[in-house]
Design brief:
The complex is a heterotrimer.
Chain A lengths: L7 H25 L3 H21 L3 H25 L12 H24 L14 H9 L3 H23 L6
Helix pairs in contact in A: 1-2, 2-3
Chain B lengths: L5 H24 L3 H26 L9 E10 L2 E9 L1 H24 L6 H20 L3 H19 L6 H31 L10 H9 L5 H18 L8 H4 L5 H9 L2 H11 L1 H5 L2 H22 L5 H25 L5 H28 L4 H6 L6 H15 L5 H14 L5 H25 L9 H4 L11 H6 L2 H4 L5 H17 L3 H9 L9 H23 L13 H8 L4 H47 L7 H21 L2
Antiparallel strand pairs in B: 1-2
Helix pairs in contact in B: 1-2, 1-4, 2-3, 2-4, 3-4, 3-10, 3-15, 3-23, 4-5, 5-6, 6-8, 8-11, 8-13, 10-15, 11-14, 11-15, 13-14, 13-19, 14-15, 14-18, 14-19, 15-17, 15-18, 15-23, 17-19, 17-23, 18-25, 19-25
Chain C lengths: L6 H21 L3 H25 L4 H33 L13
Helix pairs in contact in C: 1-2, 2-3
Classes of the chains: A mainly alpha, B mainly alpha, C mainly alpha.
Chain lengths: ~180, ~650, ~100
């Protein structure tokens, strides 16, 4: 098939399907693979896919942040946690069918519920919609109207940092 | 309007530097006294310069009707914007300068007074906090900012009154000051809430002083609404400015170091209340009912405290009660002006002159206390108080000003207030005020005559008065540090005498500043039709008071017995401080502890505790029953939770 | 109507991500794997917000700010959770959630 003969819309649609596939396959690897490292890699893949979806949603800045924070920071942190905890060479306990069935049942039921909810709701756009998608505006808003959120986030991160240090150290005097 | 506005910057520095000094001293340098002193002094000198330069730069540019408001957004969360800024008009500019000056002088003075105290650095940190909160209160543009500073003033005074916290009475006094003023603050805050409630279009964060006054001036509020709000806000004023019946904390506040008392009584804590009235003067003036209540309460305060001042033996107590009475005087002046449709000038003027001479009186008292290690002025007199020339002269100047003698500043400001009262249809008020002025002159000169004209050492009269108990009055632990002061230093250190001289200078000069000040505050100076009758009455009362004091305490054959001795019942009544402390104790015991506490305790024990116990027992019981399904498999629990939630959701959706 | 210009597409996608994540939380035994699944769930929520932001919200900045907020919360959560996992491993010598049974009734 000659790509050049396709219309831009069709290329965009194809790329969209690719991104969706990356997201979902990544997510499946993240939960289904038995090797914990494969899980992390699957998660990273899925997150990159989500970043692509964000691009489709007109938000390149958030997409970049997604890759930077999730793939760049959180996945790496998880890798460190894996290395600090259980050794990988230990035999893994076999899967239990009951558990998998339970998981599938729970997730399936929730999926059914939410899918039904999504279908039955009529989504009404806001009456007036601004079209200003620039990063400048976003930054401006972040430091004016949503400055409190910004401050709260920094406070939260500080507290989390302290909490993480205290918990991981194992309390006073046991270092 | 922005952050780069020079006015904003200088105001911001005025407020921020003392706060910075507080933080730095408390966190880093509290072990190093000299360094802390340097930081604190720097951080009060710069605001001093800035405040005065602001004053001189803007004094022709602003009027009461057209102030400079400079603010920035402090906290923003979508529609809720909390501004932070400054309101510069004649009232706040002058007060800013006064507060900065007096707190600076007191910081200088404390170098000598607090020398060698283990809490030296902490003292300076607290002084900085006190200065910062008062400066920000004075210049606040919004009510929320004002309220925050108001509470900070309370906090700082708590810290400073209870400065020698190892002494039980000091920490108790600190607590008393904090809790009692809190009573009033509840009223204040409710007043603010009601105001925002009535003013619908403004939320409490954006509520500016200007908005309130405009609303009152443009009759956006009904008479009843204004009365309610004004009275509630006056509760706060009464707490801070020690008005009857919640004045009881102020005399106890003498437990703090004397420089603190000076600061507390002249320019910061108690001035805050009166300042608030001047700030919201249009609001108060819009309600005649509220102002009548204020007038009555302040008159009671005036008489109560002057009569108690007549029998006190502790020099600081005398000055404390004189403060209470002068505050009553100011409130009287303001309310009379509001009732008579006049301006806030008289009361505010008395606030400024009082700031100078009351700081002077307390600092002089501090010198004596520091030197003789006692608070009892009879003991100071016998031990040779008059040999300390500078403080003796300056204390006399302060006393003359307090009594209202020409040409000292108190004379002019009292005259202005009496003039306001004179215009009221009911002449009872001016009569009572004159009587108060008489008493003030009397008890002030009782102190002066006793100190200035002591008896010979073998005079039997000392038996009644010379009681040198160790640590008996006030100081306790502090006495030990300072008590042996006789031999160590003979004179008064210059850091302590210098502020006295400056303040005495203010006391002398401020009186003649009446016309320029009036022009500055009101934009125009009213030519005074001198009311000679009133003038003679006022001076007559003051001189009469001094004369009676001379007869009782001054002349060589005086029996050193107040004329009040002839009415033993009254004297006991006054010595017991009108039984106000007893009243509150009784009130607390009967109503709070006796009634409410008992009911609440019963409720707590039977209903709340019983209920909680029942819930707890049933929880334990059902927990025992249900613990067998607690398998410790978190995922199983989660699975059930998810299943049930989704099932219920699905069920509800199916029905639609 | 292109498929990537429809709100429903993104909602169903987010739903799928959510369901996959939920399955992971319910069925995996390793604490780290559960954490990974939780990240998936959080991403599903972000995706939802971004979709609503793209198709419904009055101003484009709102949803993006919330998504950034979610990212920060997720980072904080990951830090805390990982430190808890390390602590649990130190105590139980295992990060299998089925071994953490100290609260058995």
């Amino acid at each position: 098939m000659n790509l050049l003969s396709l219309s831009p819309q069709a290329v965009a649609t194809l790329a969209f399907y690719l991104v969706v596939a990356v997201t979902l396959i990544g997510a499946l690897i993240a939960v289904a693979a038995r090797n914990i490292f494969h899980n992390v890699l699957g998660l990273a893949l899925s997150l990159i896919g989500v970043a692509g979806l964000f691009l489709y949603l007109n938000s390149p800045f958030v997409a970049l942040m997604e890759i930077l924070i999730y793939v760049g920071a959180i996945c790496i942190a998880i890798c460190f946690a894996i290395m600090l905890s259980e050794p990988m060479y230990l035999p893994r306990p076999p899967r239990k069918l009951t558990k998998i069935l339970g998981g599938v049942a729970g997730a399936g039921l929730v999926f059914a519920f939410l899918a039904l909810l999504t279908r039955k709701t009529t989504w009404v756009p806001a009456a007036q919609r601004s079209t200003d998608w620039s990063v400048t505006t976003l930054g401006h808003y972040l430091l004016t109207n949503y400055a409190l959120i910004f401050e709260l986030v920094s406070l939260l991160l500080l507290v989390a940092m302290l909490g993480a240090i205290v918990i991981a150290r194992g309390g006073r005097g046991s270092s | 309007m922005g952050a780069c506005d020079p006015n904003f910057l200088s105001c911001f520095l005025i407020v921020a530097l003392p706060l910075l000094s507080f933080a730095v001293i408390m966190i880093f340098t509290w072990r190093r006294h000299k360094l802390s002193l340097a930081i604190s002094l720097t951080c009060s000198t710069i605001p001093l310069i800035l405040a005065w330069s602001l004053f001189f730069r803007l004094k022709d540019a602003v009027t009461m009707a057209k102030p400079i408001v400079t603010q920035v957004n402090w906290l923003v969360s979508d529609a809720v914007i909390v501004p932070f800024g400054f309101l510069l008009d004649p009232v706040s500019l002058l007060m800013l300068a006064i507060v900065a000056t007096i707190s600076w002088l007191i910081q200088v003075y404390s170098i000598g007074y607090m020398e060698g105290d283990p809490g030296f650095a902490r003292f300076y940190a607290d002084l900085s906090l006190f200065g910062m909160s008062m400066l920000s209160l004075v210049s606040a543009s919004g009510m929320l900012q004002l309220f925050i500073s108001w509470e900070l003033v309370g906090l700082a005074s708590y810290l400073l009154i209870g400065f020698w916290y190892e002494k039980f009475s000091a920490s108790e006094a600190g607590k008393k000051a904090f809790v009692v003023t809190r009573f009033g603050d509840i009223g204040f805050f409710m007043g603010l809430v009601f105001l925002t409630f009535f003013l619908k279009d403004i939320n409490i964060f954006g509520l500016g002083i200007f908005d309130i006054n405009n609303a009152a001036l443009t009759k956006k509020l009904t008479e009843a609404q204004v009365t309610l709000c004004a009275l509630l806000i006056f509760c706060g004023v009464a707490g801070k400015s020690a008005q009857f019946p919640i004045h009881v904390w102020l005399p106890d506040a003498m437990e703090g170091p004397t420089p603190v008392s000076a600061l507390l009584h002249s320019a910061t804590m108690v001035a805050a209340g009166i300042y608030l009235i001047t700030r919201l003067f249009p609001l108060f003036a819009a309600s005649a009912t509220a102002m009548s209540v204020v007038l009555a309460i302040s008159t009671i305060t005036l008489l109560l405290s002057s009569t108690i001042g007549m029998v006190a033996k502790d020099i600081k107590q005398v000055w404390a009660y004189s403060t209470v009475s002068q505050l009553g005087f100011m409130a009287m002046g303001l309310s009379a002006a509001a009732l008579g449709g006049s301006t806030l000038f008289a009361g505010y003027y008395h606030l400024t002159t009082h700031a100078a001479f009351k700081a002077l009186l307390f600092l002089c008292a501090g010198v004596f206390i520091h030197h003789f290690g006692t608070n009892d002025f009879f003991v100071m007199s016998k031990d040779g108080g008059r040999k300390l020339a500078i403080p003796m002269i300056t204390v006399t100047i302060g006393a003359l000003a307090l009594a209202g003698i020409f040409p000292f500043s108190g004379f002019f400001s009292k005259e202005a207030i009496l003039g306001q009262l004179w215009h009221l249809p009911n002449k009872m008020w001016v009569g009572l005020a004159l009587f108060g002025a008489f008493l003030t002159a009397y008890y002030t000169f009782r102190v002066i005559f006793v100190m200035l004209l002591p008896r010979k050492d073998d005079d039997p009269i000392w038996k009644e008065y010379y009681v040198r108990e160790e640590g008996g009055h006030g100081h306790g632990a502090h006495d030990d540090a300072h008590g042996g002061g006789h031999d160590e230093h003979h004179g008064v250190p210059w850091v302590m005498s210098f502020p006295l001289i400056v303040l005495a200078g203010f006391t002398l000069v401020l009186g003649f500043m009446q016309a320029p000040l009036e022009k500055f505050l009101l934009g125009e100076s009213h030519p005074h039709d001198l009311n000679y009758l009133l003038l003679f009455l006022a001076v007559g009362c003051a001189l009469g008071g001094i004369g009676v004091a001379w007869l009782d305490w001054g002349r060589s054959g005086a029996k050193w017995q107040g004329f009040i001795r002839k009415f033993p019942a009254l004297e006991t009544f006054f010595i017991q401080k009108w039984y106000m402390d007893h009243f509150w104790r009784w009130f607390l015991n009967t109503f709070i502890y006796g009634t409410f506490s008992r009911i609440f305790t019963y409720n707590d024990r039977r209903v709340v505790d019983g209920g909680v116990d029942a819930v707890a027992f049933s929880t334990i019981g059902s927990g025992r029953l249900l613990s067998f399904i607690q398998t410790a498999f978190v995922q199983l629990n989660l699975l059930f939770m998810v299943l049930v939630l989704a099932g219920v959701g699905l069920y509800l959706l199916m029905g639609r | 109507m292109l498929v990537f210009n429809q709100l429903e597409t993104y909602l169903y996608l987010a739903l799928l991500l959510f369901a996959i994540g939920l399955y992971g939380v319910l069925a995996r035994r390793s604490l780290i794997a559960i954490l990974i699944s939780v990240e998936l769930i959080l991403n599903a929520a972000s995706l939802n917000f971004m979709a609503f932001n793209r198709f419904l919200a009055p101003h484009p900045a709102v949803g993006q700010v919330i998504t950034l907020f979610i990212m920060a919360v997720a980072a904080a959560e990951a830090a805390i959770a990982l430190s808890i996992i390390v602590a649990v491993y130190r105590k139980l010598k295992s990060i299998n959630i089925e071994h953490a049974t100290e609260l058995r009734g």
